[in-house]
Amino acid sequence: MKPHEYPAVEALLLDQVGATSDMPFGPEVICYRVCGKIFAILAWQDSPMNLNLKCEPGRAMLLREQFAAIKPGYHMNKKHWNTLTLDGSLPLDFIREEIHHSYERVVAGLKKSERESLKGPRA
């Protein structure tokens, strides 16, 4: 994916409940957070774009073996993070699944009150 395709990727990221974005490292990198915790980092000006996502360690290793476009997380804990190069070789549905997996990994580590706040009001 090229930088002009950024809106499609951002929509997938911000589709997660409670997701927000900011640029603490400068305008070329966008962090996506839930309850203040990062679940994705997008180097949106790279061509192709690079997306760092949190991942269960065993799954991370398997994905790196299966896909040339998935490497250990750039500038991240390589055990728990992958970098996806969005070069068109990874299907959009797969990217969506990996974004949600990353989000769920981060949500699982939140305080109970924070997790509850993401569920919304009860009927």
From TrEMBL:
SUPFAM superfamilies, sorted: YjbR-like (SSF142906)
Pfam families, per database record: YjbR
InterPro entries per record: YjbR, YjbR-like_sf, YjbR/MT2646/Rv2570-like
Gene3D superfamilies on file: 3.90.1150.30
PANTHER family in the cross-refs: CYTOPLASMIC PROTEIN, CYTOPLASMIC PROTEIN-RELATED
Protein name: MmcQ-like protein
Lineage: Bacteria, Pseudomonadati, Pseudomonadota, Gammaproteobacteria, Cellvibrionales
